[in-house]
Amino acid sequence: MSIIRILMFTAMLPATLARGELQSLDEAEMGEVTGQAGLSLEVNANIDIDAINYWDDSSGLSFRGVRISATDDASSGAAQDYEVAVTDTGGLYIPFTWTNNRFVISDISLSDHWDRSMGTFVADVNAAGRLYVEGYQGAGLKYSLDFALSDSRFTFRDQGNEFMLDGISGAMRAHDNLLVFAVDNNDPTGTPFLYMAFPRIQASWDVQAIRYGASQNALATPLGNGGQPLASYGGLHLDYDMSTVWRVHPGGRNGAGFTVDINTVLNQANFRYSDDGYALALNNISGQWYVNGLTLDVASDRQGDLGLALQLDRFKGNLSIDSITAGDPGRSFGQLDLAFDFRDAVFNGEAYTNRFFLQGKGHRDAGYQGLRIDAEWSLPAATISYTDDGNRVILAGIESWGRGDITFDVTRAGTVNGTEFFDGLRIGFEHLKAGYRIDGLKVGDENAKLQGGSELLLALELFPAYDFTLDGHYTLGPGGANGEGITVNADLFVTEGNAALMVDENGRGIWATGVEYDQHLRNMTIDVDAQGLMLVKGEAWSTMDISDLRIGGRSSDSIGRVVLKRFEKGSTASIRAGGAGELCVGASAADASGCLGAGGRWEDRGEQGVTIAIAQRFAPAESQDKRTQLMWETNRREQNGLRTNGSGTQLIIDDITTNDGVDGQNSYGFRNEISVDVYQTRVVKKQTGTDRNGVYGEKGQEKIMDPGSPQGYRYVTTSGPNDTSVAANRPLGFAVRARTSFKELAIGSVQLKHPDVSQAQTIMHGVRLQNFDIVSNLTATPID
Amino acid sequence: MVKAALLKVSVILFALGGVLPVRAELKALDDEGLSAVEGKGLGLVFEDFVFEHTDDSSRGQIFRIEGIKSAYGASKGQDVVVAVNQLYIARSGSDYGGTLNPVNLGRLKNPFNIDVLDGDSIGVEDKAVLEIRAPQQHAPDGTRHKDMDFDGAPDPVYAEDGSPLRDVNGNIVLRDYNVASAGFDCFTGAAGGGLCDSRTASAAYENGERPDLGMKFSVKVGSHDADSLNIHAKAAVIDGTRLRVWGEGNKMVGEFHLNFYTPELMISTCEDGGASCGKALKFRNFLLELPLGNAHQPMAMNVNGSGNFVYEIKSIAQAAQDKFGVTPTQLPSALGWSGGGTRSAAQNKALWDWFNDYYQDPANRGNLYIGKLEVHDTGGVHDFGSSRIENLLIQYMKITSHDLMK
Amino acid sequence: MKCILSGILGLILAGSAYAELRPVEEAELSEVSGQGGIYLSGDITINEDGGPLENAYFGKCSDGGKQCGARIAYQTGENGGWFVLDDIRGRFSFQGLTLRVRHVDDGFGGDGAAFDKDVLEVGLPDQVRFDNVHYTYATSSTARPTGPGFQQTDIYSVLMHGNVTMQGNLLIFPTGNP
Predict the structure, then answer these.
(1) How close C80 comes to chain B (CA, Å)?
(2) Pairing label, strands A314-327, A306-312
(3) Between β-strands A371-388 and A391-411, what pairing exists: parallel, antiparallel or unpaired?
(4) Interface A:C, Cβ pairs < 8 A
(5) pTM attached to this predicted model
(6) C2 lies in some domain
(7) Which domain holds residue C56?
(8) Please, what is the angle between helix B316-324 and helix B349-360, to 10°?
């Protein structure tokens, strides 16, 4: 059972000291007892080990080419200084510094495929720290650790390409930790277990830049061939204050090994991704979670291949992000709360569990190195709640499941065996069968009635339920539109997809079934700027082929096949903090009194919220795939119970393009600006009588929230939209303001096609829509 | 940009009747009846439907059609403003739009429908056809005698001189109206009494599927006082109405079949704001079956290069030439007119069959029928009796607008 | 040697730093009741102060003399002229446009029971307030009003303002051979 030792070894790797946001590294807390004389140890380590093998039963895990040396000179040793002092309390006090240490693991392989490697891991470390250890009531150890990192670096190398966390610095402190053997009084077998407690871990870490290099350098370097720093994705910051308790029981999932239960409280954390000085930040994160039955061993996956297997029985908890900000300070999207419960469950008649097999070699054409995760997850219950200016909207009844392979490679642009690769970190999907569904929205609090609302966001392709088989990749390259940022290239292939365009909690809705969806993205840059997030697509084309569009359930009647092709060049999308702000609904006016006077309703939807602005620049057709086209096919011939695509009659709206009202200019595009808020709205009863909840109202009366009423609301007669006596108690809704505008949307032709004739007949030789600016302010509430 | 002008319409050719004698009267569209073609595509039904808009400046209500200029007479060039005082669709029994209650439009088993048809099934070979249609009619499975003209007796067949036709025994030959056992009379709604599928309102089914619809409007030309015109239809049915379009050559062509049945179509003219309408025309049992274009000679709606509107129903002779390469002068010999125009006499059988289909298909024939025309005025009700135009066949039609304001 | 301290756990866990997790209530995570669908209130406005095009023909509504509405032109014959819906403008405001999927198995004068299927129900708002809803129907020689030799004949214009009664449900459903 050497795995614990391995774990402890990795835990030691980043242990060190430098500057940091933690103020309390003072001697007093650890070192009141430093009186005793001790031992001083200067180590110059130059270690080269061919392999460290770990065998779990007959399955092996091998770390090969393990080396410790100086960072910039493999022939020099790594300088490590230790002082060991015995304290008055009988403990050991060990301050240490590591200077220019390099730790390398050249390959990590599993015994069934020695020719597959998880890649090369290089850690360049400057560290300082202090460890204090003393006995604890005769049952174990009590210890405290401070350590800090400065000017350190972690590199993942895959076939000579590097993905690097550069300029790592920070510090952590964890005092009064316990490592004891214990038994649980409630356990009749009285089996002892290892009890590890970390009452408070405080840490703050910064990564100056995440870099990518295809430099083929012998070892990790932050500099490219020209001596310039490698291109950067941006920087990271993470600080946290947490406590966690681990119980390690003997016996793993396969007999040997061990099982861990973890209980964690996150008191506070902050995360920032920064790009050229602007940050996307998750502020003041807190939460708690527990993990049951976590095991780690070497085991076989579904295909019989060995992997380092992480499996768990249950992972349940919640996480609250007090505010999400992007760009200039103070621009907040609002608050996000998550609750989740990963555990075994059955979805669509199939049982799923939570387990991940880590294996060597990523994509088959990306060389022998890389990471592959044979993943399976099962999340039968989760909620996401979003709070905007104090108003809440909850995505209720979220379920998600999936199984398949996810690969990670660091790749260089080029085509190998027909597979096109791009510069960057490639995240691949291989036959990933997955899905999710959302029961609906609740606005206000958990007790609110379930309602729809995701329909208003269909323009963003947010489906309330979707299951699919996914293949393809996202490759994240370094650098944005300028400076730091991310460049995305992607080819995604969805097959056997089923997507709900709208759905209720019983699964009834509008279903797109038999979906095949190919998406291709070239040179899409993602940057954080002063206003938020900005995405620019170089070129994008996709084909969404919906075999059947059905009303009702997934096997209800179909209106036929619908195919949507899109071809865009230079499309942009921005995500901004802040919603619709102040607006006049039902009239046009610039201020509250003007709006009131014109018979409208003035709404101040506050500072927070989300605004997504999309400008799609549809380009002239270049090929059968690269064109924007909408097709409806019906009356398909049936063969073996299946409708044959292409055998029916088709209505084709072809070669849809945008322009600026002048041929050859296409900068304005088809714009959609969508702001999402939670806001009060006016709900008027449409018919006299009792509603679905048994509340009586007369036609024209308004729904007014009243906690004293049995259903929480009643219907009252009001004087109209501006009745101030009821304004405060109007129901909250999911408020979406959408502005669609374009200078010109041109349709090349509208055609009808008969299956027996190759050439379609044109019925419209062009449609030109010009000068549109459509604004809709719609607020969704439940149907009562 | 040239400002508005009233359309000047040139009807180039408009032919009534056919070359071949046709005896079928009000025969149903038996090849495309409800039983033959069950629904396809996307169905639409309106449930509990009411629509109303009004023009009433005192209540801030405006509904106007403007921009038209008078094209004739002393008022030429003056603005024409049509104020739509009321436009409504509601349950039958609305009292000419006075009481609006909900109605259903379309049936779940026979809804309004949008589909892309295989043209092979409707005589438009190797073409896909976009169809938008109202509920379909039933195929007839029997006949019945009816009193449609309110004279208290079953309607006769009329001879060419306008008198009832008598058989060899001198008995009046009664007219056979087609009915379907599953259908409903298009006027009374009697079950089994006709080919329509939409049902009337009843105590058990108070919405019904036959709306009252109407429009009251006033027309103002320049500074002249407004003239009012009101049109109301009771319990109207448009079953069998359809629009089909497909591509031919380099343009959109198609057919539009309009069916409109109402037990009472009332037209009255009143002074705008007048308290009572003294004069009214009432068309009792009003029937309009108007096919514009068909698979043989589709219609086309276009705008020409100068921006003028062109509406054309293709000439049947031109269609024959396009399809068979037979010019109009060659038709007599190709069809064997000298031999009596029979199939055996025809040189070109396919052409003869094609023409025969064209003339025999009742769906290509237009009908207008008024069971009884009444004029209501202060002097009472004047009965103008029954009138009908039957088997109207449009062989060629072209309408072009001319911009008079040039 | 195993030293088993059964009391120690309780001791440690009593400390606040080891506070047990607040259990995530099942109710927060699972959902059994409720109705799907949405009730929409609000407005939809077309070209309130003009659209994004500004040229010899289009401009802001406040800038008199130019068209500020939207325009749709379509051509049914190759190389012909264009049908045009021009100067499209206006606002529609309403409460109670509903959207849901509904199972129909009764009503409709007996048709419902035989139908027994799901439909998409678009519930029309009782009243829709129109604000200066306008369009012009025209024919034109070119697709764009900025095209060479542009000539347009406006045939008529419609102006609607005020409350329009639009009541009932529009039911949409597949009717057969897909």
Answers:
(1) 5
(2) unpaired
(3) antiparallel
(4) 311
(5) 0.88
(6) no
(7) 36-172
(8) 150
